[in-house]
Amino acid sequence: MMRTRPLKVALLGCGVVGSEVARIMTTHADDLAQRIGAPVELAGVAVRRPSKVREGIPADLVTTDATALVKRGDIDVVVEVIGGIEPARTLITTAFEHGASVVSANKALLAQDGAALHAAAEEHGRDLYYEAAVAGAIPLIRPLRESLAGDKVNRVLGIVNGTTNFILDKMDSTGAGYQEALDEATALGYAEADPTADVEGFDAAAKAAILAGIAFHTRVRLDDVYREGMTEVTAADFRSAKEMGCTIKLLAICERAADGGSVTARVHPAMIPLSHPLASVRGAYNAVFVESDAAGQLMFYGPGAGGSPTASAVLGDLVAVCRNRLNGATGPGESAYAALPVSPMGEVVTRYHISLDVADKPGVLAQVATVFAEHGVSIDTVRQQGKDGEASLVVVTHRASDASLSGTVEALRKLDTVRGVASIMRVEGE
Ligand code: HSE
What we know:
The protein has 430 residues and is of the alpha/beta class. Helices cover 36% and strands 26% of the residues. The structure holds L-homoserine.
C-alpha cells in the first residue's frame, strides 16, 4: 500500500551528477513512488553558487547552507554528490546524527574514512550506500556486498577509470604517444584540465580500496593500495605488447593470497592478453572481472562516469535506502570481520615484461640471465634484436614476487653491459 506522506531527500551538490539526480527524481517521480511504496520529495538542494540557473529545480529549494539542510531533522535521505573529503565528511556524519540515511558517490572519502562513516551509520541505525562511488552506473558494490555474500571472492581485476582507458585505447589503436592521446581526451572532454587524479591512478586506487574492502570483508584504506600511474606508458610498450598478443590497460587488482591469509590491492598499467575479456573494453568504458570460488568468473561492464550513468547508480541506492526506511530496517553495513592483513607490493606475485638496452657482445645474455637466476626469478622467454653493437633485449618472466623483480632490476642497472632499463610492465590476466 502506498504511503502518502513523502520521504524527504536533501541533495548536496547540483553539478553534473546532482542535476541528473534531481531531474530523474522529478521525471520518474510516479514510478519511484510505486517502487518505493511512498513518494519521494526533493526537500532541499545545497549548492555553492545559488545564482546559477538550474532547470527544473524550484529556486526556493536551493540553499548555500548545506549544514542547516542536513540538520533540519525531517530529512529521510541525504544524497551527497559534492565529492572531496571536507565538507562532505562532516555533512555525512551530521546527517546520521540528525536521523537521515546517506547515499554518496564519494570514492575518495569512502576509501579514506569508510570505516568511520560506516560506524557512524551503525551508531545511528541508518544506511550508508555508495554504488555510484565505483565505476559509475555499473552495479558492483551491491553484487559484491549482497549477491556474492555467500561466495568467496578471490580476485577483482578491473578497468575502473574511463579517462585512462580512453587514452590507452587511443594509443593502442592509433600508435599515438601518451601526450597526443591525452590531448585528444582533453579536447573531447574525457580528461579534465588537470588530469592528475586519473592518469596518476589516484582515482582508480580509491576505487580499488573500496572494492577490496567489500570483496574480502576486510578494511582496506587508500594508503594500503599500491599505485603507479600510466603517464610513462609509451608507443613502444604497445608494440611490445602486440608482439606478445597483449594490450595495455590501467588495472585495479585486488587479490587474496594463494594461502588465503592476506590480501593485496594495487593499481598500475599492465599487459593483458587480447583473449582476456578486459582487453576488449574500449574507449571510456569500465569493466570489472570478479573471480570467486563458487560463481567462477563474472564480468561487469558499462559506463563508469558521466552525469546520467552515475545518477542511475545514485537513484538505485536512493530507492533501496527509502525501502529500508519504510520497513524500519537498514541494509547491510560494513563487513570487515575477516580483518585480513593487507600485504605490501613486494609480496605480490605476477609475471613481468622487461625491456633492456644492452651491449651486443658475447656473454651479455649469460650475464643478464645470471642476475635473474640469482634473484630467484625464472625466465619464460627472451627476445633480442641487435643493431650496430647495441641490442634490445626483452625478457618475460614466470611468476615471481615484486620484491624479487625489483632486486633483479636494481642489479641489472649496475651491469656495465646494460645501457638502460627501457620499461618494466607486469603481465596480468593469464
Ligand atoms: N574520472 C573518472 C574516470 C570518473 O575517468 O573514470 C570518476 O571517477
